[in-house]
Design goal:
With 439 residues, this protein is α+β, with helices and mostly antiparallel strands. The protein contains twelve helices and 20 strands. 28% of the residues lie in helices and 27% in strands.
């Protein structure tokens, strides 16, 4: 199929809306890459720049080593599957899948061969003579995939293709898309806001926020070793718990309670520069141990009191939402343990899965990045007010873009407040730019 490379790609709309900042990634042949993040983070905008539906403001896009910035969408040899099926209602499944090949004047016998091969992969052979209104939502989505497969493009782009389906069908279609990817062997870039889709489908995940890449890595790497509090809070269901506090004499002192969590020797070594400083203790809900568990005794040095709030019964497990000195904590455990709302109990932390974050910068504290840092104070110090990790800029486009931004900043400083106020009739372009971004 193809390799895809983005080098410091930026998207700036009219009106100054900077939707994507210095996006860089190398995508290998046959990889399944997922862009994930909240609405408005720039993931669909990036996909549309790859497709040629949005112009790249700064940076380079290369497909198989060839610069594609100025290439028309039809010349990029890509196929895109959208959220809506966009099938022709008057055509049968066969004709919907064959139509693009017919426009390209592909011989009839070759069209028939490709359509039937794709139908076999997608398990649509019995439905080739049906029209879209006679199909289920999942079958229609497979027809949309089939229309792309028959073209045999270098790259598949998928923009939230499962969001219109119900929960049960989404689960089934996730495995279908992975199976199709393995059979076709196509380089695939998939956009979603659903982190479960990302975790279950991707060979690598790109986590985005506010137009910046937060972290790129394999699903398990992002789950086990998040780069910052945003990634830790976004990847995983329920999200990682964050306990705010201070490090004192080998103990983590929890805010609001004064309770002490003993650190292991390795943790003390990692956090040696944080003695007397504030930090955030991160632990996933499934790695908190309930007091009646047979494992509790092993971790009693990391125990703390917790008061139960809402209880979510999910069959074999329960999620206990609680409070620890103003820190919201979720405990995920076996439903054989009976816990009721307002119960007070003791829980402990399985220290193997502890993660630590700088409270000021929100970055993960790791052996390679363990120096104490401070960032400008913010109104909130949770995962929703995370310090964005900007990738190191490189190349002439990034340097030129940086120079342009500096000039704009200097020009704004030289203007009076009256000069910088935008006229009312200039609001429409900015709004229209926002409409081009993700909903």
């Amino acid at each position: 199929m193809a390799t895809v490379r983005l080098v410091n790609v930026n998207k700036v709309y009219d009106g100054g809306v900077h939707a994507v900042h210095d996006f860089s990634i190398d995508i290998a042949d046959k990889e399944f890459i997922v862009f994930v993040g909240p609405s408005g983070c720039g993931k669909s905008t990036t996909l549309r720049m790859i497709a040629g539906l949005e112009e790249i403001s700064f940076g380079d896009l290369l497909i198989d080593g060839k610069l594609m910035n100025a290439a028309a969408p039809k010349d990029r040899d890509i196929a895109m599957v959208f959220q809506s099926y966009a099938l022709y209602p008057q055509m049968t499944v066969y004709k919907n899948m064959a139509y693009a090949l017919k426009l390209r004047k592909v011989p009839k016998d070759e069209i028939d061969k490709r359509v039937r091969e794709a139908a076999k992969i997608l398990k649509l052979t019995p439905y080739l003579d049906r029209k879209p209104r006679a199909l289920s939502g999942g079958q229609r989505q497979r027809v949309a995939l089939g229309r792309s497969i028959v073209r045999r493009p270098k790259v598949f782009l998928m923009d939230e293709p499962l969001s219109n389906l119900d929960a049960k069908l989404r689960v089934a279609m996730r495995s279908e898309i992975v199976r199709i990817h393995e059979e076709v062997g196509a380089t695939t870039i998939y956009v979603t806001h659903d982190q479960i889709e990302a975790m279950t489908m991707a060979s690598r995940i790109v986590v985005m926020k506010d137009g910046f890449i937060q972290q790129i890595g394999e699903p398990n790497e992002l789950y086990r070793n998040p780069a910052n509090m945003f990634v830790a809070g976004f990847i995983g269901t329920p999200a990682m718990n964050f306990l705010h506090g201070t490090l004192e004499n080998g103990y983590f002192i929890i805010d609001g309670t004064g309770e002490k969590i003993k650190l292991t020797p390795d943790q003390k070594k990692l956090l040696k520069n944080y003695e007397g400083k504030r930090l955030v203790y991160g632990i996933r809900p499934e790695n908190i141990v309930y007091e009646k568990s047979e494992r509790f005794e092993k971790f009693k040095d990391t125990a703390f009191k917790m008061k139960a709030g809402m209880i979510e019964l999910l069959g074999d497990i329960i999620n206990v939402h609680g409070d620890v000195g103003g820190n919201k904590v979720i405990l995920k455990m076996n439903s054989k343990y009976a816990v009721k709302e307002r119960d007070e109990f003791t829980a402990a932390i399985d220290t193997e899965y502890s993660r630590f974050f700088n409270e000021s910068t929100t970055k993960a504290i790791t052996p390679d990045h363990c120096d104490y840092e401070e960032a400008e104070a913010t109104a909130s110090l949770d995962e929703d007010n995370v310090t964005i990790i900007e990738q190191e800029k490189q190349g002439i486009f990034a340097k030129a873009f940086g120079a342009v931004k500096n000039k704009i900043k200097s020009a704004k400083k030289d203007k009076s407040p009256a000069d910088t106020a935008a006229p009312a009739d200039q609001a429409a372009p900015a709004d229209s730019a926002d409409n081009n971004r993700e909903n």
